Amino acid sequence: MAETVTRYRFTVEEFHRMGEAGIFREDDRLELIEGELVRMSPVGSRHAACVKRLVDLFLPLQASRKVLLGVQDPVRLDDRTEVYPDVSLLRWRSDYYASGHPGPEAVWLVVEVSETSLAYDREVKVPLYARAGVPEVWVVDVEGRALWVYRMPEGEAYREVWRLEAGEEVAPEAFPEHRLRVQDILGFS
Q: Cα dist. 3→6, 7, 36 in Å?
């Protein structure tokens, strides 16, 4: 007789309670993906530098109070998924989301920087963002020196997907006047 194995899937609330109870170490980098705890890749120096460049490039939007800039902060996609995108542009709120982590309705754009996690980001996280209705996702391919842009979520995919390289420009769909050069995001001229 075959034995059936059932996985226990955690909720975001249980995930938070485990953190509050001290089950995780402070330096544990975990995300909750469809109820399962997933250890995030260590942050390499090129990854960290790219995140810093993105923050610098998006700061004018926050200074104008058009957005709140999240840096590796939680975004709750549903009851069983809470992710930590490298950068997120959130709808401005005067309480800075002190009353609770933002959900997909609060997100203008998330950016994932991929130094060693490109396949995971594109094949696992991007579909989760689409399913949750996040309007735009950028995946920075550090190794491939490119930027993947995803727009118009439909089901678990995006209807518009394109790859940009140095010499090209991009702007968040919600802020078309905020044009960025891809080489400035990638860190080379």
A: 10, 13, 21
Q: Long-range pairs for 61-69 at CB < 8 Å and ≥24 separation? A: 61/89, 61/175, 61/178, 65/92, 66/92, 66/175, 67/91, 67/92, 67/108, 67/175, 68/92, 68/93, 68/96, 68/97
Over residues 118-140, the pLDDT tens digits come to 999 999 999 999 999 999 999 99
The answer to whether 78 and 15 have CB atoms below 8 angstroms apart is: no
pLDDT at 1: 61
Kindly tell me the number of DSSP H helices and DSSP E strands found in the chain. Answer: 5, 12
Distance between CA atoms of residues 163 and 95, nearest Å:
36
Tokens for 126? Answer: 């991007």
Give the 3-state secondary structure of residue 120. helix
**CA 149 – CA 161 distance, rounded (Å):** 6
